[in-house]
């Protein structure tokens, strides 16, 4: 009995990570949607001789007949900016304020832009996994 108590007392305590803020949840959701869209575009290209889809909706329709609407918009309800060619893919969310960060001091708050070029993150909030 004493041995069992010592084992329990000496065991490391496992605690759950602190809950994410609503702002961080929105940023994580937006990054996840962009990752999904990148994959959809790449799959579309692979089945259409390298051509980029004319829109994100068309790429999604091929994989998901019933498009999940949340994937086509960022967590603030705005449509992603999309530009695709044979060689490049650009997907952008302008964050909570809907305005480009261009020229502004980089912000890590909810107004931070998400910029994905090809399979790389050019701009993403630092608390969001790349």
List the helices and strands and how they pair.
Layout: H1 2-10, H2 22-47, H3 56-63, H4 69-72, E1 81-84, E2 89-93, E3 114-117, E4 120-123
Antiparallel strand pairs: 1-2, 2-3, 3-4
Helix pairs in contact: 2-3
**pLDDT under 50 segments (min length 5)?**
none
* Secondary structure tally, helices: 4
Main structural class:
alpha+beta
The whole-number mean of residue pLDDT values reads 85
Overview of the molecule:
The chain has 130 residues and is an alpha+beta fold. It has one domain (22-123). It is built from four helices and four strands. It has helices at 2-10, 22-47, 56-63, 69-72; strands at 81-84, 89-93, 114-117, 120-123. It has a four-stranded antiparallel sheet, with helices on one face. Helix 2 (22-47) crosses helix 3 (56-63). The longest helix is centred in the first third of the chain and has 26 residues, at 22-47. The protein is globular, with a radius of gyration of 20 Å. It starts with a helix and ends in a 7-residue tail after the last strand. The mean pLDDT is 85.
Summary keywords:
4 strands, four-stranded antiparallel beta sheet, 36% helix, alpha+beta, 130 residues, 4 helices
Gist of the model:
This protein is an alpha+beta fold and 130 residues long. Helices cover 36% and strands 13% of the residues.
